[in-house]
Design brief:
281 residues, Rossmann fold, 2 domains, 39% helix, Rossmann-like_a/b/a_fold, ligase, pantoate-beta-alanine ligase activity, nucleotide-binding, Pantothenate synthetase
Length: 281
Amino acid sequence: MKTVQTINELQDFLYSNKGKTIGLVPTMGYLHEGHLALLNKARVENDIVVSSIFVNPAQFGPNEDLDRYPRDIEHDTELATKAGVDVLFVPSVSEMYPFESGISIHAGELSTKLCGESRPGHFDGVLKVITKLFHLVQPTKAYFGQKDAQQLAIIETFVQGYNFPVQIVRVPTVREADGLAKSSRNVFLSEKERVEAIHLYKALTIATETWIETKNIQDALAKGKAHIEQNTSGRIDYMQALSYPNLQTDLNNVEQVLFASAVFFENARLIDNIIVEVKDV
């Protein structure tokens, strides 16, 4: 595996592999099994695998955990090598954003819901870095996990709406044995909170099962919220059900329904979701 830190080095590598299919896996590092699922799928489906590690300041708000976000480049490099990554792009902030252009990308209505309600501007920053990576790498396919379902929906919509020549590949959420979704932020949970955190997925399961049985969305969400409140010390940011991937509240005549929730613990905000295929219920 080759590790590069500059755009010129990255493009020199890609030019030397011109004509090959490229799978891109963008990450913010601190890799875990969820990232490995993306890398492994990219490895199977492409000639070349490019992965980026960049803690993107554009998607963090002023009171968020940019400086605290976990980093371990040695461990990340080891995992990426084992996963068969061909080139690991690890740029600095100044390399990615050498000047302020004054031009912004706005994620629009899809970014005003779920995580976007408490993280204004977050998805604008996501699209900023994704646009740069797509232009720099020009991948055949790009891989994203379903754990970040709203991000995935926004990227899919953005790519389709603006004709980016890349296929977005959804990869299912990877979970711990007890159901907790793999996340770099899990490291910030106390021992007590780590035990409680499994109830986020359990609450979503209760909500989806209730909705499938009764088709009463308000009752389903109420039961999910109650489970979190009764079994954790966390504070609910949201628990909602929306059509997927267009994130609307009207669930009539839709193919997929997203049940999603976010919970604040003392030093971590965890998200999780379940996507229900309506034709299967």
